Amino acid sequence: MEQRHLLHCTVYSSAVSACGEFLAVGNNFGDVSVLDFNLKSLSSSKPKLINCFSAHNGPVYALLGINNTLISAGLGPVLIWNWKDIVSFDPKPVHKLEACGPKASITCLCYDKKHGLLFAGIEDSSIMIWDLSNLSCCKKLTGHTQYIHDICLLSDSLASASEDGLVKIWDTHNNKCTKTIKPSNWNELKRPSLGSWIGCVASDSSTEWIVLGGGPAPALWHTRSTSMALPLNSSNEAQSFIPFTLHFYGDEIVGGGNDSMLHRWTSNGEQKAAVPCAISNIFSINFASENSLPAILTGTGHKIQLFTNLGYEGPCISL
């Protein structure tokens, strides 16, 4: 990457191929970089860049690795690529999923493997659903009033987090909103100086619990009752930590945000650790495979931070 691009680079997204051999990351310039990703040699050698290509005309906000394909989203349509093509020198998308106008951005993606459905949060405050078996658009969910920051799949529903300060639970059978959560209504969580927006949502493997965070402090919620169970405590002064990404990992919760730390909490909301890393603002945390290390952290700057053990930072890769 050119030096002037390195100075202004932000890496928003990452995805690992199903075979576990390749890592793709998307940046604010619309580029996707592909690296070799041999899990067995991570402790002794860093992944090396295989290819870097232009995918979108704006930031690549989301990447998903599904079977033998990579799905990328940002400005314009959702693009589907074959991994075997993107590790070559002239990759071209094999399919395009049109969401809305060419100047609208897709901010997040998630995939329902059971039903073969792809969900996309869009900056126009809607959620698009595609059936990947025939590449058809199934439905457009509306109800939020501002753009969608994050979405996550539950058992038979979908949770969406928005700039409007709401988290909505959608029934994926009838495509209707069944529950709404407004975290800023809870006195323990509200932080008026930071606003009411919700930037991230994630569920545990049972989907009985979700974690939310943004302007209001991060907290654990019970999905069915939509009641707040407990806040995630932070050692930061005046609760200044703002989460941009939260995930369940085993019996703990991990998150990253506006500081250069990988935050870890126990299931009872107590902070377990805050581990330093090389990224000043962490926008995404991904895992090599479902609930499996290494953890892949990306954010401001041109570096990718790997954690082969959540107790300390591992290899740091520069694009």
Cα gyration radius (Å) = 18 Å
pLDDT < 50 stretches: none
The succession of helices and strands, N to C, reads HEEEEEEEHEEEEEEEEEEEEEEEEEEEEE
| Major sheet: arrangement of strands | 1-2-3-4
Number of strands: 28
> Count of helical segments?
2
Provide the residue-averaged pLDDT: 91
Shape: globular
The termini sit apart by: 7 Å
Major beta sheet summary: 4 strands, antiparallel
What report would you give on this structure?
This protein is 3% helix and 51% strand. It is built from two helices and 28 strands. The chain is globular, with a radius of gyration of 18 Å. It has helices spanning 3-7, 83-86, and strands at 11-16, 22-27, 31-36, 49-54, 60-66, 69-74, 78-82, 95-97, 106-112, 117-122, 127-131, 136-141, 148-153, 157-162, 167-171, 176-181, 198-203, 209-214, 219-222, 227-231, 243-249, 252-257, 261-266, 271-276, 282-289, 292-299, 303-307, 316-318. The N and C termini lie close together (7 Å). Strand 6 and strand 7 form a beta hairpin. It has a four-stranded antiparallel sheet with strand order 1-2-3-4, with no helix packed on it. A four-stranded antiparallel sheet has the order 5-6-7-8. A four-stranded antiparallel sheet has the order 9-10-11-12, with no helix packed on it. The chain has 319 residues and is mainly β.
Keywords:
319 residues, four-stranded antiparallel sheet, mainly beta
